[in-house]
Amino acid sequence: MAEPRRSAWSLATPMLLYSCFCLLVGDVLFGYDTASFGGILANPGFINQFGTYDPSTRKYAFTSLHTSLLSSLAFIGKFIGCLAAGPAIEWFGHRVVFFCLSVVSVIGVIIEITSAGTAAGSGRYAQFIVGRIIVYISVGLVEVDVTTYQAEIVPAPFRGLVVVSLQLFLNAGSLVATGVNRAFSTYTSHVGWREEAVAALRRLRPKTAEAESECEAEVQAIQEALHQHVEKAPWLELLRGSNLRRTMIVMAYYFFQQTTGQAFVSTYQTTFLKQNGFAAEAFTYPVINTALSFVAVIPAMYLVDKVGRRYSLLTTFLLQAFWIFLLAGLGEKSNKGPVMLNAIVASFILYWFSYNMGGASIPYLLGGEIPTAALREKTQALGTAWNVLWAFGSNFSIPYLISDLHFKIGWVFGSISLLAFIFTFFFLPETKGRALEEIDAIFATPYSPFRKGIPNFTDAERGVGQLEGEVEKGNAVSDNEGRSVKHAEQSSLEGTR
């Protein structure tokens, strides 16, 4: 009589959850910095420190150029961090890279803090930008290090939930930052790891799995699927065979993440609100917005494994387009009364809520699970670096777009959201519940959104979840095979040669 199948959550051991949690704390850094800086740009104390004095108004202010440079140049650091992360993880492992990025972050923050002067106009503008660039090196390292590590150690049935949870922690950091911004909104002063394969799995999986030799079976499945070992492939392999399709999908979603309007809300919402008749609530609405976006991630963490990546993205892109189109349409109306003004704010908030339901976090998940094991770190590094280029472009251009287009900027971002919806429908296959090795078979055949059914998989491709009970207990692994297992698993779990 067959033994009853255990639920996926029976694999969620305390050690696994603890390991994921420790790394996710790094995402609080990015969330705090992004939301904090959005409020800082409109903070009187910061403006007085680093702005330019205007004799006609007798006030300090930022020009569009200064605002663009402050918000966009930091992405030079993130670009460096993203590109360096892949090779660094392959050589030194996820654990060492995480320690290093923590040190880099502290150094950057110290440089930022010490750039403030003691009087109006005495802030060292260039030093503050240098500090932001260094902080964003650590942000780039975080995005690649955390997502690739989690994608490899988390069982397939709830990989989506864990990786998408990065957005929850990012929003937690944002929530704290917007609260701090609100508290200081009127201040004018300057206050304002390598281990053996099976041993590592035994620590991450339930004790019953060790008793049933399932950890050994998991390593064997990885070994068979990866043809006895994983050799990290060169960069050019990203553009060959089915890898090209994977690379393009990852890069497409990192493009959409930045160009559907997220920077418009995350970085410039306070400034935009102040310029468009909401000055009294310009620091309050971001707190509400961030709190609701934090809530939005919770169902997203469940739905990404329940309904899948594909349907989650189709929904989020469609809703993003709808709300930001509504924002643009209402904003162009003249003589806006209280009801219409409230509808504009609601559209603004609901757009951000929709973005956090999938468009914000699923690109990281796809970047961690779609690439083949031999190219996972490099694909994620290239994808996030590409993401940074568009983040730079968006952050630099938005102040000018706001100045020239005002509410019409919504038509631009809404159109890109519709493009993302169409791309998802025609090109993104569903990968929910699939072992990383099994995803290779999905990309072995062309994808059609009109074809029903899924590819047939061999035992090796099904992954550990469906190999349970199929591997006979007591099968001895030869010394040569054992060395291959160890090498394969070190490459897969640790990202080392």
Automatic annotation (TrEMBL):
Superkingdom as given in the UniProt entry: Eukaryota
Protein name per the record: Uncharacterized protein
Organism: Nemania bipapillata
